[in-house]
Amino acid sequence: MKSLDSLFAAARAAQANAYAPYSRFQVGAAVLTPQGRIYGGCNVENAAYPVGVCAEASAISAMVCAGDNRISEILVVGDGDTLVTPCGACRQRISEFSISSTRIHIAGPGGVRHSFTPDELLPHSFGPKNLGV
Ligand code: THU
Questions:
Q1: Which of 24, 32, 63, 76 has the least CB density, counted as fewest CB within 10 Å?
Q2: Ligand 1 center to residue 85 CA distance, Å?
Q3: Strand locations in 33-88, DSSP E?
């Protein structure tokens, strides 16, 4: 699928710019909106460790900053053999902007390894509906 290829390419490009001198674990992410726009993000670590930002948060911030607020697909890529699934906080961030068809793709250097629905990653989530939004 062309959009998935483009999403993977955007996430890999972002991963190459990741600032991860402490963990040495570079992560890239890319968001695809229903309008077909793509936003990339990478992890940005900090000497004050908790201040670091995940790749998913970075991509979602870029999306919102550009005026979009719906995620059709998000792809996360990292090196190594394990699945680079989003952390708990990023699952909540993804959930905020998800639609019924949203898919979360987890990739390694060779491509997508697994795809999830938001509900699989964060069941029984608290969201806008809880606040009547
Ligand atoms: N990291 C992400 O950016 N996304 C994930 O899904 C998992 C972890 C980052 C945070 C930190 O900079 C490094 O990977 C090691 O945890």
A1: 24
A2: 9
A3: 38-42, 71-78
Which helix (H) or strand (E) segment holds residue 56: the answer is helix 55-65
Task: Give the C-alpha separation, 43 to 82, whole Å.
Answer: 17
Ordered by where they begin, the domains of the chain are 2-131 (3.40.140.10)
d(CA 82, CA 63): 27
Please, are residues 41 and 60 in contact by the beta-carbon 8 Å criterion?
yes
Predicted confidence (pLDDT) per residue in 61-119, tens digit: 999 999 999 999 999 999 999 999 999 999 999 999 999 999 999 999 999 999 999 99
Mutate to test the pocket of ligand 1, among 25, 42, 56, 60 (most ligand atoms within 8 A of CB): 25
Sign of the alpha-carbon dihedral angle for 41, 64, 100, 53: positive
